[in-house]
Amino acid sequence: MATDTGDRTFTIPEAPAIPGLRFRHYRGPADHPAMLDVRNAAHLAGGLNDPATLEGMDVWYAGLTNSDPEEDLVLVELGGRLVAYGRTWWADRTSGERAFEAYCFIDTNARGRGLGTALLALTSREYDLLVFLLSHPRQAFSREQLLDRVWNWSFGDTSTVTVHVRRLREKIERNPTLPERIVTVWGVGYRYEPVED
Questions:
Q1: 20, exposed or middle or buried, with CB in 10 Å at 0-12, 13-18, 19+?
Q2: Which of 15, 35, 125, 154 is least surrounded by CB atoms within 10 angstroms?
Q3: pLDDT tens digits, residue range 117-130?
Q4: pTM for the whole thing?
């Protein structure tokens, strides 16, 4: 489970034990130059010669839809230097389902150390949902309440909550089909039930 350190950084248990490794949230356009360097190096290493520009990145992040960078973007630093980042977003399918996607870019010098696995292990929004539920053990919340309290949305598609709960269960439950920690309260929603390991 991720642990909040209070300064918009957090730890992820799946992260490799590398001195100076730190996960944090997006701080806005000030992060763009370092993100651009990581993105361009990753693309070049993957055989894509399509360098992005700082202006392009500024425009891209200012106009994002279906993703909130302050919540859905996770940055990875090693020794105070940005070495990777990942972002999630959602899209509505023609079937009516909402699909969530994620990607990450990793600096070529930081590859092969388990950062991608850790980065995609728990998204920022999953982390926020987990921290919220952990801070209210045994208290049931409806999907609407979770949208309001975790997403800060006064309206929206409650399937967003359902999908995030399912993904969290897949990552923290021994058997996601028989959850012991994030349990369904029929007719209400979900609650966190502390479990002795």
A1: exposed
A2: 154
A3: 666 666 768 877 88
A4: 0.58
